[in-house]
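Entry 12.
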Amino acid sequence: MWYWHGMGLWGWLVMIAFWTVVIFLIVWAARSNPTQHDDKSAIRILDERLARGEIDSEDYEERRRTLESHR
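Predicted 3D structure (tokens):
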């Protein structure tokens, strides 16, 4: 019977709270996606350093073996 008299104040507040929680959870899930981290892996950084000429190939191979042995 309450349908014919509208939702009332509590109905509107519950609906607003519900959608606020739903939107918050969607935004939180999108931001916490582990595949979208800005962190670079150690191997990728090592590859970039070799490409820029900061390290030579011997140093690269040694560091790469060290990194792979710690996985």
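Annotation: The chain has a mean pLDDT of 84. The first helix runs from residue 8 to 31.
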